[in-house]
Each structure stands twice: as structure tokens, then as C-alpha cells.
Design goal:
mainly beta; Immunoglobulin-like; four-stranded antiparallel β-sheet; three-stranded antiparallel β-sheet
Length: about 150
């Protein structure tokens, strides 16, 4: 159903045994810097888990600090799209200092879905977790044998 398969490159077996100048250690430490984890979290701001049982798929997406009103969910042509549009403005004045900060952002994440009852999909949002229940379509569950002519 879902076309997203997480993977990791750990243990890929690529290493250099004689590292006289410490280049492997340098690059390894360089990419462990917190800056790169921040960049990775910006690249995929919506982290999701998908569970399956006999009757439905359950998608849980992490969206901390997002208001329910800023979330959009759409299903079109077997694609489920989660979107967030944020617009925040902070104004603070104290002891002669004026602090004003604005931030806007928009991001989306899509999942390929099939054999879902689109009219029975339900969603809830609590404590920064968006939960979407996608009931399976019973009609498409069985196997079909195709005869060759």
C-alpha cells in the first residue's frame, strides 16, 4: 500500500583500514555535527509511522507545535497528502528592547495509497500527533486470476 520504505546505510561495509591522516574520522565526525541533523529534519519535517491490521491502515504523523487549523489532509488519485501552513509572529517589549520575530513555512508529505474507502477515512490530532485511520476496501482484497488468451 505505501510506497515509502525506510532504509539505513549503516553497516554498508565501506571502510578504509589504513587511515594515516584521519580523514575517515574527520568526515565521520563532521557529518555527526548537530547542524546536519537539523538539515535532515527540515528535509522531512513530517515523520510518520504506518500500522496495519485486518480492517485498516493507521498512519501516525508527528507534527509538534502545529495548530490543528494549519493542517490539511487530501486524498486524490490514490495519493494521501498531508500539508502544514504556518504563520507565526512574536512581539515582546521589555526594558527598552523591542523583540519582533516572524516566521512562515509550508511543507507537505505524500503517500501512495490503494484499496482504501476514501469516504470512511477519519483523522484526529492530539498532543502533536496526527492520526489518520484508512479503512481497507473489501472489494479489492481478494486475488484475481487472469487467463491468457
Amino acid at each position: 500500500m505505501f510506497s515509502l520504505i525506510p532504509f539505513s546505510r549503516k553497516g554498508s561495509g565501506v571502510s578504509r583500514k589504513d587511515d594515516f591522516f584521519g580523514l575517515d574520522r574527520f568526515f565521520s565526525d563532521f557529518f555527526r555535527d548537530p547542524f546536519f541533523s537539523r538539515v535532515a529534519s527540515i528535509a522531512t519535517p513530517i515523520r510518520a509511522d504506518v500500522k496495519e491490521n485486518d480492517n485498516e491502515y493507521i498512519l501516525e504523523a508527528e507534527m509538534p507545535g502545529v495548530r490543528k487549523e494549519d493542517i490539511s489532509i487530501e486524498i486524490s488519485d490514490d495519493v494521501l497528502t498531508l500539508g502544514v501552513d504556518t504563520n507565526k509572529e512574536v512581539n515582546e517589549e521589555s526594558e527598552g528592547y523591542i523583540y519582533r520575530e516572524r516566521s512562515t513555512g509550508s511543507f507537505k508529505r505524500s503517500f501512495h495509497i490503494q484499496n482504501i474507502k476514501n469516504d470512511a477515512v477519519k483523522a484526529s490530532y492530539k498532543d502533536g500527533i496526527l492520526t489518520i485511520v484508512l479503512p481497507k476496501d473489501e472489494k479489492a482484497k481478494g486475488a484475481k486470476r487472469i487467463e491468457i488468451e
